[in-house]
Amino acid sequence: MNGKDAKEISKFLSLILRHAPQTIQLQLDENGWASVNELITKSNQFGKELDEEILDYVVKNNDKKRFVFNEDKTKIRASQGHSIEVELDLKEAHPEHFLYHGTVAKFLEAIQKEGLQKMSRQHVHLSRDKETATKVGSRRGKPIILSIDAPKMIADGYSFYLSENGVWLTDHVPVEYIKF
To answer: Which principal EC class is assigned to this enzyme (predicted)?
Structure first.
């Protein structure tokens, strides 16, 4: 499988496992897990050629580790980023350092007024390093990196969670914790 094919499959899995499983009539459980066999069967019925080998390759090689199998590889889910309601059973975590968020200029005015909002997702996504935040922000144009005072937020009672793929999650980042 080449990188272009893997990227196309990854985008398809993001759609199906994070936002719209109904596209292929796939059932996710309350924790966002889908049966690998059902995913393969229904994807193939809708014209996407998938098999266990392809899924394994995409899960292992996705640069953002967006997907994960359960222990016996009978189920698959997205690590985070859902716009549909799922319970990921994330454990509260406490970052001991600043976190970062990549954005672009057109969103700055709203962020300066309202802070970082989760919008259609379940959480605001934050990165542990500026490099990752830069990659995220550059998907929409010239990136602007915001620094988030996570230790201060924790001291003030806000909660953070760490997804399986290392993305820090929180419900909202008020303006006073953002360094522009």
So the answer is: transferase
The count of domains in the chain is: 2
List the beta bridge partners of residue 20.
none
Which domain covers residue 64, as residue numbers? 3-78
pTM for this entry: 0.83
Nearest Cα to 116, choosing from 60, 168, 40? 168
Q: Which ranges of 19-139 does DSSP label H, i.e. alpha helix?
A: 36-45, 52-61, 108-114, 130-138
Q: What is the mean pLDDT of each run of 10 residues along the chain (180 residues)?
A: 88 97 97 98 93 96 92 96 93 96 97 96 96 95 98 98 94 98
**Nearest by Cα to 136 from 64, 68, 58, 60:** 64
Q: Are residues 68 and 103 in the same domain?
A: no
